[in-house]
Recover the amino acids of this structure.
């Protein structure tokens, strides 16, 4: 059968950012995949060199709207390390709290997106409705729903009152109850199993070889989590389990994320019930002493790395960000190979790409010069139809 | 022809179909746009439906500061939309470049690339602000009618 190359992207309506996949098809099966990046390149690392440390905090927060706290915390740890500042323990606790709330919001968001790509729209609406509870908690604590800006050099901006604590705990109880329902749904519902099991396989060896990280790696049995390997903030004092799965497929990634939600609730309760007393911030001089620092942080999608070089002025000389999706994209190419065209949306969504974007796919046959355009939406419908013919149908639920 | 125009305006006002385009945003506005479609805010009750293709859309909802890579794609997508069409610039960076103003990879502000009808400021915008923006746009079209 002749090979067909399909460009997927770079425009996408329902999801987030732009990227492009070139898929080589033999019939319905994928025989090769390449990832093209750069549609979202804004030049932030260069811009960070022209701004002061405190301005960079707000710039780097906008690397990503979903894991914004991850980037600022990773960056600020570097700055505080160079400034040799003792961050108060209460500030670290508040940062840990916001980090875990952010993980809950990100994983719930992912669960909804995965449900949507599967054709299970009820799950999408359910999880996004419940996600509002977390956003309310974040708004209560920081004053904003998405870019929390809770960090400031030397500590955090806002303290947590007893009323806020009670309110957050109340919402966490509700979410914990809902999550147990989602876990039951993900592990027992036959339609979900049929769409996710043995889809997008990533064996243990390949996950190591391609440097997969975060929930993507943990679903392949790689027990790697910065929170355990190199504890930062208050993680060394918290009691939580490192969740892994060994099914190495989309189902495993679903289970890992769902179970991580439960661990996050546990951590949020621990932090709130044992908030250390004391100040929430210390003063740090504008000029940061010359030096270099590197830090790792477990963002919801995996390990986030920040490098900072300072030259003794109030502006950094170099800022380098390695976001988790970049590391996981290498694995996506492997997962797609040998799979079906119909599974593409789900497999790409399964790593929770922080720069997805794959609306328009053009099927192009170079021999016949024929072109057929697929929207992401069409591709999703194609997948749902194909599985329906095989007996996987969500409309009967 | 006049009856046809009336029909087009009527359907636009009763059920504006939107297309979401990310021109290099940080995802903050994008998740808030999707949020506006989910149960808590639910703009679908106003007849607003998120469409996948520009050829079905009445309103182009653009977030992000427009990266150089995305500028020509944004223009193509706008050209593919049928008349009458409107552009909504969502977020501070969509309005003026916001925090990305001055970055080398960015052409700050959507109005440098496309004619913009509604500016919704905020970083990121709140879903309520998006709903308010759409309602204001519909009111202004109603006024012209």
């Amino acid at each position: 059968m002749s090979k067909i190359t399909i460009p997927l992207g770079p425009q996408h309506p329902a999801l987030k950012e732009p990227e492009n996949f070139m898929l080589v098809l033999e019939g319905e099966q994928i025989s090769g995949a390449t990832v093209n990046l750069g549609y979202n390149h804004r030049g932030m690392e260069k811009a960070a060199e022209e701004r002061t440390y405190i301005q960079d905090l707000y710039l780097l927060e906008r690397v990503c709207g979903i894991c914004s706290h991850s980037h600022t915390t990773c960056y600020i740890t570097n700055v505080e390390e160079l400034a040799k500042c003792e961050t108060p323990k209460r500030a670290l606790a508040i940062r840990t709290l916001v980090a875990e709330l952010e993980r809950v919001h990100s994983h719930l968001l992912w669960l909804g997106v995965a449900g949507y790509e599967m054709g299970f729209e009820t799950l999408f609406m359910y999880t996004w409705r419940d996600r509002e509870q977390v956003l309310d908690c974040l708004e209560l604590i920081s004053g904003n729903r998405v870019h929390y800006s809770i960090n400031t050099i030397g500590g955090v901006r806002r303290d947590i009152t007893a009323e806020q604590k009670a309110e957050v705990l109340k919402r966490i109880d509700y979410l914990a109850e809902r999550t147990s329902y989602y876990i039951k749904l993900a592990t027992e519902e036959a339609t979900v199993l049929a769409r996710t099991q043995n889809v997008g396989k990533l064996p243990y060896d390949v996950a190591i070889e391609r440097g997969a990280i975060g929930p993507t790696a943990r679903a392949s049995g790689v027990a790697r989590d910065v929170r355990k390997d190199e504890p930062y903030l208050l993680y060394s004092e918290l009691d939580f389990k490192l969740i892994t799965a060994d099914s190495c497929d989309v189902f495993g990634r679903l289970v890992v994320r769902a179970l991580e939600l439960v661990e996050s609730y546990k951590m949020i309760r621990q932090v709130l019930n044992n908030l250390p007393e004391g100040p929430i911030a210390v003063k740090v001089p504008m000029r940061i002493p010359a030096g270099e620092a590197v830090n790792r942080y477990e963002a919801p999608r995996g390990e986030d790395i920040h490098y900072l070089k300072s030259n003794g002025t109030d502006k950094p000389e170099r800022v380098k960000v390695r976001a988790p999706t970049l590391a996981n994209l290498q694995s996506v190419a492997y997962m797609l190979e040998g799979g079906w065209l119909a599974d593409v949306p789900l497999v790409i969504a399964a790593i929770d790409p922080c720069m997805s974007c794959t609306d328009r796919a053009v099927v192009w046959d170079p021999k016949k010069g024929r072109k057929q355009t697929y929207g992401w939406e069409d591709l999703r419908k194609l997948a749902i139809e194909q599985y329906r013919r095989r007996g996987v149908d969500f409309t009967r639920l | 022809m006049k009856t046809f125009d009336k029909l087009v305006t009527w359907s636009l006002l009763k059920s504006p179909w939107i297309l979401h385009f990310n021109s290099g945003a940080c995802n903050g506005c994008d998740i808030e746009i999707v949020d506006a479609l989910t149960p808590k805010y639910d703009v679908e009750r106003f007849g607003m439906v998120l469409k996948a293709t520009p050829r079905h859309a009445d309103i182009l909802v653009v977030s992000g500061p427009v990266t150089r890579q995305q500028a020509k794609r944004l223009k193509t997508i706008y050209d593919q939309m049928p008349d009458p069409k409107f552009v909504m610039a969502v977020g501070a960076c969509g309005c003026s470049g916001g925090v990305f103003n001055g970055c080398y990879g960015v052409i700050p502000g959507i109005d440098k690339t496309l004619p913009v009808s509604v500016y919704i400021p905020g970083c990121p915008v709140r879903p309520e602000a998006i709903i308010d923006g759409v309602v204001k746009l519909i009111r202004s079209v109603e006024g012209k009618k």
Remarks:
- The CA atoms of residues 138 and 145 of chain A lie 6 Å apart.
- Residues 44-198+275-325 of chain A form a domain with the Cytochrome-c3 Hydrogenase; chain B fold (CATH 1.10.645.10).
- Strands of chain A lie at 3-8, 20-26, 29-36, 151-152, 155-156, 291-299, 302-310, 316-322, 360-365, 370-375.
- The mean pLDDT of chain A is 81.
